[in-house]
Specification:
Helices cover 39% and strands 16% of the residues. By secondary structure, the protein is of the alpha/beta class. The chain has a 7-stranded mixed beta sheet, sandwiched between helices. β24 and β25 form a beta hairpin. It is globular. Bound molecules: pyridoxal-5'-phosphate. Pyridoxal-5'-phosphate binds next to α11.
């Protein structure tokens, strides 16, 4: 097994003192227990320190001398030098432990100045207690690398208790001896079954009322992600979003949202009974990409709906576009509106300055993250981070428990614990590598002369060009329009011939997702495949463009009220294949979503127009394979479920 390497940087501008410290600390590390492989090195200037922090991904802690600069530069405020360095270090890599070496006793003003900073502790220089210092630093790094839940799960498995409880496979015993299904046991591996346990095992705590190892793991995660509170969710960010809505919105209360947000947000609106106010997102028509909502639209929605309880934005988007969140948060908070950011695609951002600020750092009250999408957690593992000063824990807990299975997957919880540990201990290093691979891959794709990576400039729709939007470079969108394949054929070719599965596509683009699991070999194989396809020299094909989704019409009823009506099925077209007139101006009862692109054309309670029916009929008639969620078939007839006139009369109109 690979052993960890951890380095601690000592910063002191007196070379003799520095040498003595580094030597003493290394001697202590050699002679004492050192499971994390801690070694010490030293630099004498702040500039060297910042360079080391940037370059050395194995750095886990820094020890800053408070008298830094005072011998080399005539700083009038000697204590501010250390302060400034600490601020820059913690801004750059907040996960690092920071200790201060105090030169003299009675320097309480230094401690006071650093009090507000993320300083983990102090040592008096004159004590020269290297073994004591080492023990404290070692304990601190060990604390960060702890995985309380995962450790307890392992302990329990190794205790080998007889199972008289669920699950029925009983540590895999039901499968292991079976001639029919033992292959499943062998394929999945014994620990998948050993670790699949139940709430009956008290030492594994309860996800619904955590007081033990789950609570501990969540507390460590909160510190890592810069949240006041963190909650582990085992039903994906789809559920995390719903839990927050039900906590913040009473039926009829307003939520500002982007129509282009994930379907879980729309489902959350139905479940909470909230009153959605849709903000139109920008559209890049050339590539059929739905971008961020223009800042102007967001600020105007906040101004026009000061009575809204919350606003939710997706940042970054599936295509990697990141909002400039701070001004939005400021405007929302000025009206008392809570800010929720769906960071399903951005759970790693805290661990590399290239991706920050995170939503919480920009002041958001809630952030939901699909840890499984972009870090090393199992599918469905998600985190909810809370920084809301008015957090109503009781209400949140009730809603969380309403959505949480009483039989959560314990391996999933363990994977959240481990994903957090990895992000804290080596996230910076791995993300630096991912960023380098992304740059390499971009250059290689462009060098094919046929495929072209879309950069921020090409991705940004016109309306948001001045909104300070940034691009997450781990999402690589490639223009394929010159390669001579349709996007479907290209994906098939990549899959069948080159064993490559991509993340998603539009009619003329492919999107590749790089994560901390991306390797140089994978980059080379992808480059090789694209280069070979480019060299086929095919003439460009005419590519069928999806028609643009019609603009939002109007909500006549609250989505929840409309959804719970029985309604009736009305076909989209009559026997002559013409649009059914009796559908027009009716209120839809379902959410109707063509996939791709996955944006609802209709939500429950929305008024149906001719343009919308035209659009849906056009999609049904097109040759392209599009899933149309929400369309109901009555025999061969595609129908919409709409409210009956009597149901409409009985409901309260909102618009
Ligand atoms: C923006 C956004 N939010 C939420 C989700 C749901 O996340 P999960 O798959 O973890 O339920 C997704 C999934 O694709 C998403 O794209």
């Amino acid at each position: 097994m690979k052993k960890p390497v951890s380095r601690v940087l000592v910063i002191n501008d007196e070379p003799l003192v520095l040498r003595e410290f580094v030597k003493g600390l290394n001697a202590a590390a050699r002679s004492l227990d050192n499971p994390l492989g801690i070694t010490f090195s030293g630099v004498i200037t702040a500039r060297e320190a910042l360079a080391a922090i940037e370059e050395d991904g194995d750095l886990q802690a820094v020890v800053v001398d408070d008298k830094l600069y005072t011998l080399n530069q005539k700083s009038p405020k000697k204590e501010m030098s250390a302060l400034e360095l600490v601020q820059r270090v913690t801004r750059f890599r907040p996960e690092l432990d920071v200790y201060i070496l105090i030169a003299q006793e009675h320097e309480d003003e230094i401690v006071d100045a650093l009090f507000a900073e993320a300083v983990d502790g102090y040592f008096y220089r004159e004590e020269r207690d290297y073994r004591g210092m080492y023990r404290i630093l070692n304990a601190q790094v060990q604390e960060r690398s702890r995985t309380p839940f995962y450790d307890q799960l392992k302990n329990y498995v190794w205790m080998a208790k007889d199972s008289w409880h669920t699950p029925g496979h009983s540590s895999g015993e039901s499968l292991r001896g079976s001639p029919w299904v033992n292959d499943f046991y062998d394929f999945m591996g014994e620990h998948i079954f050993d670790a699949d346990l139940s709430v009956s095992v008290k030492m594994l705590d309860s996800l619904m009322e955590p007081t033990g190892v789950i609570a501990e793991a969540q507390t460590i995660a909160a510190k890592a992600f810069g949240a006041r509170r963190t909650f582990f969710a085992t039903n994906g960010t789809s559920t995390s979003n719903k839990v927050i809505f039900q906590t913040l919105l009473a039926p009829g209360e307003k939520l500002l949202l982007d129509r282009n947000c994930h379907k879980s947000v729309h489902h959350g609106v139905v479940l909470s009974g909230g009153h959605p106010v849709y903000m139109d997102s920008s559209i890049n028509a050339k590539y059929s990409l739905y971008g961020p909502v223009p800042k102007k639209t967001i600020l105007s929605a906040i101004r026009r709906h000061p009575d809204a309880q919350a606003i939710i934005l997706t940042s970054c988007t599936y295509d990697g576009l990141r909002y400039d969140l701070a001004p939005v948060v400021e405007a929302a908070h000025a009206k008392g509106i809570k800010v929720i950011v769906d960071e399903a695609w951005y759970g790693f951002a805290r661990f590399h300055p290239a991706f920050r600020p995170t939503a919480l750092e920009a002041g958001a009250d809630y952030a939901t993250q699909s840890t499984h999408k972009v870090l090393s957690a199992f599918s469905q593992a998600s985190m909810i981070h809370v920084n809301d000063p008015g957090f109503n824990e009781h209400l949140f807990r009730e809603n969380f428990n309403m959505h949480t299975s009483t039989s959560p997957q314990y391996s999933m919880i363990a994977s959240l614990d481990v994903a957090r540990k990895q992000a804290v201990m080596e996230g910076y290093k791995l993300l630096s590598r991912t960023l380098a691979l992304s740059q390499e891959l971009r250059a290689q794709i462009n060098s094919t002369g046929v495929f072209r990576v879309l950069e921020l400039d090409q991705l940004l729709p016109e309306e948001v060009r001045r909104d300070n939007i940034r691009l997450d470079p781990t999402k690589v969108t490639v223009d394929i329009s010159s390669c001579g394949y349709t996007v479907e054929d290209l994906q098939r070719e990549l899959f069948d011939r080159y064993n490559i599965q991509v993340e998603k596509s539009t009619f003329n683009t492919l999107t590749l997702l790089l994560t901390i699991g991306t390797t140089r070999s994978k980059v080379s194989r992808l480059y090789d495949a694209l280069m070979r396809i480019a060299r086929e020299g095919r003439a460009p094909r005419r590519l069928y463009r999806f028609p643009e989704i019609p603009g939002f019409t109007r909500l006549r009823y609250l989505p929840r009220d409309a959804f719970y009506c029985g309604g009736e099925l009305v076909p989209l077209v009559d026997e002559k294949d013409s649009i059914r007139r009796d559908l027009l101006d009716r209120a839809c009862a379902d959410q109707v979503v063509p996939y791709p692109p996955g944006i609802p054309v209709l939500v429950p309670g929305q008024v149906i127009t001719r343009e919308i029916v035209h659009y849906l009929v056009g999609l049904l008639r097109s040759q392209k394979r599009v899933e149309l969620h929400g369309i109901v078939y009555d025999g061969y007839l595609p129908c919409l479920r709409v409210l009956k006139p009597a149901e409409e009369r009985a409901l309260r109109r909102i618009g």
